Amino acid sequence: MSPRRSVADTLETRQRILDRSLAIASAEGLEGLTIGRLATELGMSKAGLLGHFGTKEALQLAVVDQAAEVFLREVPRKVKQMPSGLPRLIDVCEAWVSYLEREVLPGGCFFTAATAEFDGRNGRVRDALAGMNALWRRDLRIHIRRAVSDGDLKPDTDVDQLIYEILGVMLALNHFLQLEHDAAAPRRARQALRRLLTK
Question: Which of these, 39, 66, 67, 188, is most buried using a 10 Å CB contact count?
Answer without folding.
Answer: 67
